[in-house]
Amino acid sequence: MPGAEPARPPGRRETDLLRLATAGSVDDGKSTLIGRLLFDSKTLFIDQLAAVERVSRERGHDFTDLALLTDGLRAEREQGITIDVAYRFFATPKRRFIIADTPGHIQYTRNMVTGASTADVAVLLLDARRGITEQSRRHAFIASLLGVPHILLCVNKMDLVDWSEDAFESIREEFVEFATRLRVRDLSFTPISALHGDNVVMQSTNMPWYDGLPLLRHLERLYVASDRNLVDVRFPIQYVIRPQSHTVIDYRGYAGTVASGVLKPGDPVMVLPSGLETTIESIETADGPVDEAYPPMAVTVQLIDHLDISRGDMLCRPHNVPTVAQEIDAQVCWMDESATMTKGAKYAIKHTTRWARALVRDIAYRIDVNTLHRVEGIDALALNEIGRVQLRTTQPLFVDTYQDNRQTGSFILVDERSNKTVGAGVIGRATVAA
Q1: pLDDT score at 14
Q2: CB atoms within 10 A of CB 4
Q3: What is the DSSP letter of 250?
Q4: Looking at domain 235-316, which of 3.30.70.20, 2.40.160.50, 3.40.50.2300, 2.40.30.10 is its CATH number?
Q5: Read out DSSP for 264-295?
Q6: Which CATH superfamily is domain 17-226 in?
Q7: Class of the CATH-defined domain 323-432
Q8: Over 50: is that where the pLDDT of 307 sits?
Q9: Which tens digit of pLDDT belongs to each residue from 184-200?
Q10: Does residue 55 sit in helix, strand or coil?
Q11: Residues with Cβ < 8 Å from 246, sequence gap 6 or more?
Q12: Cis peptide before 296, with omega less than 30 degrees from 0?
């Protein structure tokens, strides 16, 4: 019926997990916001709070600098900036949260890609005094490129603009105009003051004109279960379990994480790349057998038939298979500061649990993340640049477009000499392998 909550997928609990990434320009208050969430939700240990209060006094602050709760590196504390991605966990009676606090500096754009790649929601902060900046546009573009389903724009430091509704509305209208050029499924706005706690956990009395929910209440109610792909069954094999025991005879289990779809005992499945078909006999977890498995559950699947299946293979539905491809068209974010991506370069590519080698056949263009325009006629991608690239792999990969499936539509590139991750890509199109 209209207005009713969508049907819940199997196994959804009220205390389900929400992954969120914060992003924004330098000094927009990301670390302070996360510290405020931890403080106001009462998830801090006494010694943690005492340490933050002591360091705040040593710095001459007349307030408790909650940003110190997330800036764990010495360089971060000394400079007052965020360099690395800091992950923090907290929970309320309604939901569990994992927060990725990502850097604001342009040279750490790759870290923002890392933090947002698995996020359900991107919380973009900006300073109410400065409005939308170059970094605001860059982070919004990256969040949309990575398919983050929900974007929440928090206009921070409202106390420094006298809690002005006009200032908030001006920023909101400008960002809405910019977002029309992005692929954003859900966009919302909240005026806050992370330093004082206004509209973070509790409703602000300083902004009576705002009738929306505080940030934490909005995150608690955000419905993300429907963002998962529960239609296309994709189960990459991570490990083949063969117990070395005389008491267990002919046990062969296939362990991995469900990328998408729902698996049940008795379901017919196809094994890629062999194309052989069989049936699921049972599904087990660390807590015992289950009647169904859905993303992102880690399970062990037993099949009725004993087939030649190894790490990197994939289970899917016989009549709903991914594209088996060696020619891949993707958007790549380059992450290596010591070298550029050039045409003809070769890298190792990791897609789900499968490894292969990849050749860069062409670099079509680079994206100007400020204007969203294409810069053509280039021959390389440098650190933090994003461009469209054509790859040829030595082995077929089992892919979907990133828009359809974030797990099977993404990959990383690795320099085989240094073993460094040098690029991250999202698949736009793939050509069926011969």
Answers
A1: 38
A2: 6
A3: S
A4: 2.40.30.10
A5: -TT-EEEEETT--EEEEEEEEETTEE-S-B-T
A6: P-loop containing nucleotide triphosphate hydrolases (3.40.50.300)
A7: mainly beta
A8: yes
A9: 889 999 999 988 889 99
A10: helix
A11: none
A12: yes
Length of the chain in terms of residues written = 434
Retrieve residue 113's tokens.
Answer: 């890609």
- Asked if residue 273 has a cis previous peptide bond (ω within 30° of 0), the answer is yes
Q: Which amino acid is at 274?
A: S
In angstroms, the first-to-last Cα distance of the chain is 47
- The boundaries of every CATH 3.40.50.300 domain in the chain are 17-226
- What's the pTM value of the predicted model, to 2 decimals? 0.80
DSSP β-ladder status, 253-257 and 341-342? unpaired
The strand pair at 386-399 and 323-334 is best described as: antiparallel
**% of the chain residues with pLDDT over 90:** 53
HSE on the CB side for 257, CA within 13 Å?
7
- Where in the chain is CATH 2.40.30.10? 235-316, 323-432
Residue 103: which of 142, 71, 134, 130 has the closest Cα? Answer: 71
Q: Where are the alpha helices (DSSP H) in 180-315?
A: 215-221
429's enclosing H/E stretch is strand 421-432
Count CB-CB contacts under 10 A for residue 221.
10
Helices 134-145/109-116 angle, 10° precision: 40
Q: What share of the chain is helix, strand, coil (3-state, %, to 5)?
A: 20, 35, 45
Please state the rounded mean pLDDT for residues 344-350. 96
Kindly state the tokens that stand for 348: 């190792």
The first and second tokens of residue 232, run together, are 């296309």
How many Cβ atoms from other residues are within 10 Å of residue 239's Cβ? 13
